Amino acid sequence: xxxxxxxxxxxxxxxxxxxxxxxxxxxxxxxxxxxxxxxxxxxxxxxxxxxxxxxxxxxxxxxxxxxxxxxxxxxxxxxxxxxxxxxxxxxxxxxxxxxxxxxxxxxxxxxxxxxxxxxxxxxxxxxxxxxxxxxxxxxxxxxxxxxxxxxxxxxxxxxxxxxxxxxxxxxxxxxxxxxxxxxxxxxxxxxxxxxxxxxxxxxxxxxxxxxxxxxxxxxxxxxxxxxxxxxxxxxxxxxxxxxxxxxxxxxxxxxxxxxxxxxxxxxxxxxxxxxxxxxxxxxxxxxxxxxxxxxxxxxxxxxxxxxxxxxxxxxxxxxxxxxxxxxxxxxxxxxxxxxxxxxxxxxxxxxxxxxxxxxxxxxxxxxxxxxxxxxxxx
Length: 378
Known about the structure:
- It is built from 15 helices and no strands.
- The chain is mainly α.
- Helix 4 crosses helix 5.
């Protein structure tokens, strides 16, 4: 979705659709479809472009609604406009739809209060552009390993359920003494249905517990600590959220929001417990006169590089600029680590899978060679 504003006059008149629009204003719409990151990225970009071109806000919403090909997006924009016409602010209208995150409507609130709505909209466009890029990178990394892993589970299931029992019946006919490895594989095959059931129940239980206790702080604390300790992925997750932390503070401080208020909003928006739980302590320290960098230093989630750069920025009074640079640096690190995980993970999974399948085949065929020698000798 893109807009050419070269021919848009500042007094643009949008064709009135009185029957459909007024009918829309007088009834409640249930938006069942989710607004995706791509749709939001385009929406914020186009709205920023229109406002920069001098188009008034309500007319800009009409233009955006009229150009939408998807009905749920058109209805959503018209609903937002209806709320604005009733006297609500843009950020309140976004919040009431339930389709936008706290980060979005709090950012919009700041933009409205500081008269920098077009700038904030452009920052939101950049934010979702980053998220889309990151998601594509992660999907590209996990797609092949996931496919290979699923295929391996299928092969393993087939071998332990059908192939190994077939070999077992042959071994039983000759009543021969089997190597320890072969015996262990046969025992694993016999117990495999039970193991498979236990694993399946465990996965369902874990998913259920995550859904049930997902908002519990104690559970979130344990979950985040577990994630951060994961090889490869723990570091990546940390980088993603530190990048987001820097992006949020960049936007908020650029909008001339005070540091303590910015931290309050970051706590509501970040969605990552280690950072959330640190913010109250940091905020209280700042109120007491402790420098921002020194306050962050008390919490393990923040890296030395981040703390030292913030310390320098405080001395020269350029925190917003520094957080912008840090956000870009963390984005680059995330991109690099994502590629590295793909490079390391793919051959590692293939080696592990090949080792498992090879081990089973050796365990089954080694006794067969011994049996063939006995048969030939007799």
